[in-house]
Design a protein that fits this description.
183 residues; alpha+beta; six-stranded mixed sheet; 7 helices; 9 strands; 36% helix
Length: 183
């Protein structure tokens, strides 16, 4: 029964134009279903040009896979954990109704200004490409790839805690031509 269903995230894009002050539906890709939660920030392709925009997840629901033809997929999460609690999400809905403000205006009232523009870059492994060259890696490359695989996805800060900046930079540059990493 679940194989015919996909997870849909209802998101608010971080844009102050009146036309986009509503919930938009995006498919949560299978690799992110265990990671993405309500209250998180994600990157989404938006509009005809698929411009990458930050969005806030307000709700997650199941939907029939066959009826998602026009939905786009979330590019990936920005944060490790939700930055908005369920209480804050309800407060944002209430503020929009009570004060006739935009969703984004209500969100910005609740989130510290330094957090809104802070984006973390995450790395995951493209297993199809990795399998093609698995035996060709050297020791340090193998260590870094194993670390990323073990953690499913990591941000640069956690890599720098385990490896030096120079090592991480060098290995990513060396292996980037093989499309092993998904940024």
């Amino acid at each position: 029964m679940l194989e015919n269903l996909v997870y849909i995230a209802e998101v608010i894009v971080n844009h102050s134009v009146n036309k986009v002050d509503k919930l938009f539906d995006y498919i949560i890709p299978p690799q992110f279903t265990d990671i993405i939660k309500e209250g998180m920030r994600v990157l989404v392709p938006f509009g005809r040009g698929n411009r990458r925009l930050e969005a806030y997840i307000f709700n997650i629901r199941l939907h029939e896979a066959g009826s998602t033809g026009r939905f786009k997929e979330i590019i990936g999460p920005i944060d490790d954990e939700p930055i908005l609690s369920s209480y804050q999400l309800n407060m944002i809905r209430w503020m929009k109704t009570k004060y006739l403000c935009k969703y984004v205006e209500a969100i910005h009232c609740l989130i510290p200004s330094g957090l809104v523009n802070k984006e973390k870059r995450f790395i995951t492994i493209n297993h199809e490409e990795l399998d093609k060259i698995r035996d060709e890696k050297n020791g340090l490359q193998k260590e870094i790839i194993d670390f990323i695989e073990k953690n499913r996805r990591v941000n640069y800060e956690s890599l720098y805690q385990h490896f030096s900046y120079a090592e991480v930079y060098r290995v990513i540059k060396q292996l980037q031509i093989y499309n092993i990493f998904i940024f």
